Amino acid sequence: MTRATSLLYLDGVSVSFDGFKALNELSLTIAPGEMRAIIGPNGAGKTTMMDVITGKTRPDSGDVFFNGAVDLTGEDEASIAELGIGRKFQKPTVFESHTVWDNLELALKAPRGPFATLFHTITGAEKTRIEDLLDLIRLNDKRDELAANLSHGQKQWLEIGMLLAQDPKLLLVDEPAAGMTDAETAETAELLKDIANDHSVVVVEHDMVFVRSLGVKVTVLHEGSVLAEGSLDHVSADERVVEVYLGR
Amino acid sequence: MMTSFLFRAMDARAGIFLAIMAAAIVLVPAGNLLVPEGSPFHVPTYAVTLMGKYLTYALLALAVDLVWGFCGILSLGHAAFFALGGYAMGMYLMRQIGTRGVYGDPILPDFMVFLNWPELPWYWYGFDMFWFAALMVVLVPGVLAFVFGWFAFRSRVTGVYLSIITQALTYALLLAFFRNDMGFGGNNGLTDFKDILGFDIQADSTRAGLFAASGIALVFCYVICRAVTRSKLGKVLVAVRDAESRTRFLGYRVEHYKLFVWTLSAMMAGVAGALYVPQVGIINPGEFAPANSIEVVIWVAVGGRGTLVGAVLGAVLVNFAKTWFTAALPDIWLFALGGLFVVVTLFLPKGIVGTFSQGWTALRQRKASADYEAGSDEPPSSPPHAPSATARDAEPQPAE
Amino acid sequence: MGGTKKFKRLIPRDAAERLLGMRRLTFIRNAGGPMSFSRSLLLFLFLAMGLTAPALAQSDPEALRPLINELAKGKYDDTQKQIGALVATGDPAVAPALEALGDGDLYFRKSDGMVFIASKAGKGYALTDPLTLESAGEAGRRDVKKIKVNNKLRRVLRSALGSLTLMAPDPAVRKQAAEAVFKSRDPDSIEALDAALAAETDDSVRTVMEQARAAAVLNSDLGDEDKLAAVEVLASMGTRQAMSLLLSVQSSLEGPVRDATAAAVTKIEKSIAAWDAAQNIWYGLSLGSVLLLAAIGLAITFGVMGVINMAHGEMVMIGAYVTFVVQEMIRTSMPGLFDYSLFIALPLAFLVSGAIGVAIERGVIRWLYGRPLETLLATWGISLILQQAVRSLFGPTNREVGNPDWMSGAFEVGQMTITYNRMWIIVFAMLVFAGLMLVLKKTPFGLYTRAVTQNRRMAASMGIRTPWVDALTFGLGSGIAGIAGVALSQIDNVSPNLGQGYIIDSFMVVVFGGVGNLWGTLVGAMTLGVVNKFLEPYAGAVLGKILVLVFIILFIQKRPRGLFALKGRAVEA
């Protein structure tokens, strides 16, 4: 796939911290509408890759393009978010002293400038959208609850809901199943698959069961570059992947 | 749009606050001017001035609370904006003295004659006009805050680092204003004011008027703060306070929000300073002292940060205590103030108002859930816990 | 800098004391009439000579008196001869009389022909014995008569006086006499100088004499050759004094000498600039070490532990008060130990400040970990309490903390003056820094500290008692502040506000250097110190400081985590 037809295009991206190469000539392409799982042992560079895409970390070298044309290395977090890339963090980060409703309202796609928000009055359409999202993430009865009072799993879901409220073209989801019960993990997988119907999604996950249940193409990262790519069965069969994971 | 914006500021809690303020603005001057001196309801002039001073402190506390309580920017330099506003007003008052100064120079203030300055420096031009001085009262602190904030927030200086450079800012200004050649009276500052807008600054009626003006300014700024914090922008500010980088990933330009609220707050501090100066009759570089800025923070912490009423209440209570202590037990005051810092941060992190509303809501909730369990159809509509850090959902309470 | 301080630096301590004492004496003597500075200086020299060379001073004044009284007799030529006779005695005791003669203050009593130094007092004169310098009563206006001198005699007197002092037995006196000639640039002294040079054995005195001679030569009507040699001697001095001398004679010179002078001035300018820079660096390093001392404890509590300790300045202040208490106790009970007072104060200050630090950590700060802004407020409160406590105990005014002998005085390196207290503080700051580095890098305690700072949970699970480490680390930082207080008590006023003056600077240093990095603190302190001192000559002390603050504010915008920032993901965690 070429840069022009891709949604996200990383080519030869390197990042180092004090001599430690977190990303080493990483190249990765996500097609529009695609859902991709990214796995890899600790320190493989998964989170750093997310940081580079969302503008938190500047790469030392390499290209990052969105929609085939927009150079992300020159943009900051806010404008990348505005371009349509949403991110869910490894540790769920919601606004704890806001209610569930307010969390969603803040995430909702709307003008982001200070004067726009100062004089903003919530519209009917926005209310409907929030109601829909509340249903989707099953937090309708908790709408007035402070986010701080939610359980860990509910926070994960709220964050996914906020991601959807942004209505991004591409969702970056970092370990959505971390700390969830098996039942919650299964539900989360279903939710993500629903979302993947009309969004591109990149999921970073440790949990192989979860990745298997997504049933999508898998990229294995190791020491900052791509080790293997393909279906989960394909990569599991790869000698090097087995070696990296089991340390043989 | 504007009306709905301001309308948002109104609820029961704001109503109680505004009613109390309105009563004070009417009753205190009346008690001073209309009630004869022997009457138990007479308010002596010194008390009017003292309370007027408290109100300007309350306004300063409000400004600090807006940035600290709602946006998490702990400013240790707000006294700088307060003092700049004060100096702008002081310059107007100096120009009003005219030939009544010791040296009788119609243009030059006394200290310039004393220093053999041949003519008025350019930055003193215009301060003979009240409207110009009033403009500068908000503009000078506003511009300084804008420039400072633009640099600081753009480079993402946050937390303790920001606190320390705000302290450096006010310290640098302190040193600068001590210099005679700055043209602001050096060590002695500006004083010996005669009149304001043509009224004798010592007269009872002027004092009462200044008290009322301080009250009105406080009410006005309170309504603005309330409207700002209850708007969607206010929610973004709280989001920035709690999870700054998360807010960025949602697409908000955090630096713009901070800059907006920071500049607004500095302007309010400037207004507070401008009202403070004619009431105490002097402005000198001591007002820039870093210790002053830190003291304001404790007023806010005592009252309850993130609650606007708390900031006002804290400022008035702590300063009342200060007045009382420094008169009755002067040696004890610093122990008391120091102890207050420690006790409040350790045991009362939400401050008086925050703790109170938390307790109040918990009580209501218990009652409500008891009703619910007793067979009520409706689940409790109020949130289980009021967000302690925001005034938004906190309940009005009788403490005011 | 006050006049006396400057004085102290230019002249060795003992000489300075004598000088101060003598000046007081001459001023008392002076009360009646005006006396030129050079005269009082010369007087001092003679008196000093009398003190340091008792063998000569013991000469019997009565043996000299007839010779002195002879001065009043005869015409100018006789007086001149008599001056020669006095000089021939080689006794410095005759100098005041000669000096007074030159200034027209020497009178003789008509009744008995006795000679006195006289000054107007009321309607008559106050008389002073010219040999013992004791008061000799008063005399009416008509009872005494001035001994007249003409210009020729004055010249003779000057050179006579010059040779008297230039040949004095004490080298310090000879040196000062030569320095006096250098200032007066009197060509008549050349002869005396030549004679003195021929006899001179001390190299340092010889150099000064040569310089004095050069100065006199330039002022004389000697030939170009002599003058060129003189210019060279002055050029090699390289001091401001030599330059101003050359500049002042430049206009009166012609031809090659003038060119040589111009060249010499340029050369001296360069050398002065270099020395000035060196002196500025020295001052900067000295200020830097003060900053380092103040900040280094903070670098631990703030930099390593992440605790914003606004009471840090008070720990410094308490260290200074410990020094005060130690010195008070020594003064009252064991005055002999005074020179060791600082060594006694150091461990005590460490323990007292450290103990208070541990108490603060256990009592307040440990409840506030992870809430830096709250810590800031609570410790500010503590700082107010500590200040007020010290104010109640010791009073609000400055307390006197003395410098031991080895901390006072100064010495010169080239054209730089180095005071001992500044020098020891620099040495001390470096020692403290090195010691701290050693503790943190080489001891088990340091290892625990670093482990806890880097990963508290992991450290705890490995069996390190983290609360214990926290308390001791905070105690260490506070104790170091106390030690700094002992040093700062030597150069700053010891008052309850002492700490306040350092807290902002300390934070600036730590933040500028980079939090969590002791080397950064060192470099930060030294950089800020030197920058400050280089700005001062152009901007003045206050404006210089403002500029440094503005610079730091801008610097933090550019590098929000300081000079030596930690990078990478660890920072975000």
TrEMBL record, chain A:
SUPFAM superfamilies: P-loop containing nucleoside triphosphate hydrolases. GO terms for cellular component: plasma membrane. One of its GO terms (molecular function) is ATP binding. The keyword ATP-binding applies. It comes from Roseibium aggregatum. Residues 8-248 form the ABC transporter domain. The gene is urtD. PROSITE patterns: ABC_TRANSPORTER_2 (PS50893). NCBIfam families: urea_trans_UrtD. The lineage of its organism: Bacteria, Pseudomonadati, Pseudomonadota, Alphaproteobacteria, Hyphomicrobiales. It holds the Pfam family ABC_tran. This is Urea ABC transporter ATP-binding protein UrtD. The keyword Nucleotide-binding applies. InterPro entries: AAA+_ATPase, ABC_AA/LPS_Transport, ABC_transporter-like_ATP-bd, ABC_transptr_urea_ATP-bd_UrtD, BCA_ABC_TP_C, P-loop_NTPase. Keywords: ATP-binding, Nucleotide-binding, Transport.
UniProtKB/TrEMBL annotation, chain B:
GO terms for molecular function: branched-chain amino acid transmembrane transporter activity. Pfam families: BPD_transp_2. The keyword DNA-binding does not apply. GO terms for cellular component: plasma membrane. It is found in: Cell membrane. PANTHER family: HIGH-AFFINITY BRANCHED-CHAIN AMINO ACID TRANSPORT SYSTEM PERMEASE, SLR1201 PROTEIN. This is Urea ABC transporter permease subunit UrtC. It comes from Roseibium aggregatum. The lineage of its organism: Bacteria, Pseudomonadati, Pseudomonadota, Alphaproteobacteria, Hyphomicrobiales.
